[in-house]
Amino acid sequence: MRVLVAGVLSLVMGVGAGPAHAEGLSSLEAINRCEAFAVQALRPDVPEAMANRYKIACYFGLVDAQVDTDTDAACRRASQSFPRAHRDIAEFVCLGAYRNALPPAETAF
Questions:
Q1: pLDDT tens, 17-46?
Q2: Are 53 and 64 in contact (CB under 8 A)?
Q3: Smallest Cα–Cα separation from 92: which of 108, 72, 106?
C-alpha cells in the first residue's frame, strides 16, 4: 500500500523535488507518518480507497513548506478538495500525523 501511495505522489510531485520540500517534512517521512496515523486513527469500516485519499491529503499537508510554522493552515489547504465532512477527516489525519510524532512538550494545545 505504501508503495502505491508513494508511486502516485512521486508522479504528482517528483520525489524530493521542489521548494516545498525545503521546509516541510521529507517525502518519505510524510508518507510514513500519514500511513501510521491513518491506520491507527481511522475506523476499520472506512473503505480503503477513501483512507488512501485521506493519506494523500495528509502527505500534501506534511510536505507543505509552512507545516512547521502553521500546521493548521497547511493541513487545511491540503484538505480543501474534499466535501465538508471528508475535509474535516482529512484535516484530522494530517494534524494527527504531524502532532503524533512530536515530543510531548510540543503537542500541547
A1: 444 444 688 999 999 999 999 999 999 999
A2: no
A3: 72
DSSP for 18-49, written as a single string: STHHHHS--HHHHHHHHHHHHHHHS-TTS-HH
Cα separation, 73 vs 57, whole angstroms: 13
Element (H, E) at 3: helix 2-13
- Would you mind telling me the total number of residues written for the chain in this entry? 109
What are the two backbone dihedrals, phi and then psi, of residue 20, each rounded to the nearest 5 degrees? -60, -30
Cα–Cα distances (Å) from 42 to 1, 10, 30, in that order, read: 16, 24, 17
* C-alpha grid cell, residue 64: 507543505
Cell readout for 17 is: 523535488
Over its C-alpha atoms, the chain yields an Rg (Å, rounded) of 13
Residue 59 in grid coordinates: 502527505
At residue 80, the 3 state secondary structure works out as coil
State if pTM tops 0.85.
no
